[in-house]
Amino acid sequence: MSIKTFRKGGIHPDADKLTADCMPERTPLADKLTIMLSQSIGAPSQPVVAAGAHVAAGELIAKAGGFVGSNIHSPCAGTVKKIEPARTPQGLWQNAIIIVPDAEQPEPQFAGRGDAEIQALTPADIIAIVAEAGIVGLGGATFPTHVKLSLPPGKKADTIILNGAECEPYLTCDDVLMRTRAREIIAGARLMKKATGAGRVIAGVEENKPEAIKAIREAAAGIPDVEVTVLKKKYPQGSEKQLIQACTGRVVPAGGLPVDAGAIVDNVATAYAVWEAVALGKPLYERIVTVTGPNLEGRGNYIVAVGTPLETIINDIGGLPDDTEKVVCGGPMMGKAASTLDSPSTKGLSGVLVLPESMAMRRKPDPCIRCARCVEVCPMGLEPYMLAQLGGHKRWADAATRGVANCLECGCCSYICPSSRPILDFIRLAKAESRKLKK
């Protein structure tokens, strides 16, 4: 069996998949749901409900604020208490719809579609359904899926790549979804294939997920336009450009998009959400979230309603351990530390990682020893040490010239640095500031 990977750079952190065998369980509905109006990369959504309105589970409560945006639906039956600013886990204030769930929650009723009706859907029909359902990329980027499926004029994609790499340590939400919903994932990917006119689907899954590989292979058996590629366990295998290279051998040009290499990449959870929207008529208002940590007793994979407070998620499984120092939204490589737990889950929340002090504190950085390890592991072939220096000296134009815009922000450079230098911090600064120069 050929195991594939990308050619340049990468690291091999400990996987720490502590919840790999924890099948999804539904968390209790919180007493209050705070649904942020910014649920995607794009314009914030606009409310279509007012305080005092009663809403049903799955009812539209906010429309996309533009083409690059997403609709938002209520995760429950309840009453809109108010619309007001709320804090994100990073402490930023954004407008949100506050819903108080009803004591009794009837089973949601959606208008599903039979096989014949699904077969009769046109590409435009599928894209419209995806847009209406408010589906965004569930791998973390939250790019509106209907936008990704709407190819720009003159662009063509011949391949849909299903991202089942889940290379971030600790996270297992995609793994358990592939094990339990493989047929639906493949069906969702084929719907995306039809929507874009692509000719094939490639499902890429890292080698450390044997049960998921088996399930996806069984679901794809006998389907000629679907193939399964086993990927080497290497970070950042799940990054779009690296995944395209591993699965197809193609290279996305610098500054280009995946479609420039004839591919569209979607997370397996996104494909499942597409199937739910098309086959069941169910919008995206809940998802699987990995809640984990080395000392967290109730760790597992949980089906969480969008808008559930982080504090509620953690308290429902036993609370924070006494030695907790940091809570990260996402994985340890690309996730962001939460400044407050009095903030809600969103469509893009894939994990909640609880870290003890021994794993959370940064070591005091030493001077750079010019070892070039950061250069060796950079999957984009950049010079991270130099970009960080330019960022530290506010030389934004020079950083732009040296390709800072191509940085994935994967964190390989900071991870590998023997001097514990905050390389990525300065690169992020340089990347953000150099972007302003173009405006």
Could you give the topology of this structure?
Blueprint: E1 25-26, E2 33-36, E3 46-47, E4 54-55, E5 60-63, E6 72-73, E7 78-87, E8 93-101, H1 115-119, H2 123-132, H3 145-149, E9 159-164, H4 173-180, H5 182-196, E10 200-206, H6 210-220, E11 226-231, H7 240-248, E12 263-267, H8 268-280, E13 286-292, E14 300-305, H9 310-315, E15 324-329, E16 336-337, E17 351-356, H10 357-360, H11 373-377, H12 384-392, H13 396-401, H14 412-416, H15 423-436
Parallel strand pairs: 1-14, 9-10, 9-12, 10-11, 13-17
Antiparallel strand pairs: 2-8, 3-5, 4-7, 5-6, 7-8, 13-14, 15-16, 15-17
Helix pairs in contact: 2-5, 4-6, 5-6, 5-8, 12-15
Give the biggest beta sheet: 6 strands, mixed
Give the helix tally. 15
β-sheet strand percentage: 15-25%
Q: Which fold name fills CATH's third level, the topology of the domain at 115-280?
A: Rossmann fold
Shape: globular
The strands making up the biggest β-sheet line up spatially as 1-14-13-17-15-16
Question: Radius of gyration from the CA trace?
Answer: 21 Å
Regions with pLDDT < 50 over 5+ consecutive residues? none
| CATH homologous superfamily classification of the domain at 115-280 | NADH-ubiquinone oxidoreductase 51kDa subunit
Briefly say what this structure is:
The protein has 439 residues and is α/β, with parallel strands linked by helices.
Describe the model:
This protein has 15 helices and 17 strands. The model has no long low-confidence stretch (mean pLDDT 96). Strand 13 and strand 14 form a beta hairpin. The strands form four sheets. A six-stranded mixed β-sheet has the order 1-14-13-17-15-16. Strands 2-8-7-4 form a four-stranded antiparallel β-sheet, with no helix packed on it. The chain is globular and about 60 Å long. It has helices at residues 115-119, 123-132, 145-149, 173-180, 182-196, 210-220, 240-248, 268-280, 310-315, 357-360, 373-377, 384-392, 396-401, 412-416, 423-436, and strands at residues 25-26, 33-36, 46-47, 54-55, 60-63, 72-73, 78-87, 93-101, 159-164, 200-206, 226-231, 263-267, 286-292, 300-305, 324-329, 336-337, 351-356. Helix 4 (173-180) runs parallel beside helix 6 (210-220), helix 5 (182-196) packs across helix 8 and helix 12 crosses helix 15 (423-436). With 439 residues, the protein is an alpha/beta fold. Among the domains are: 115-280, NADH-ubiquinone oxidoreductase 51kDa subunit (Rossmann fold), CATH 3.40.50; 373-436, no CATH class.
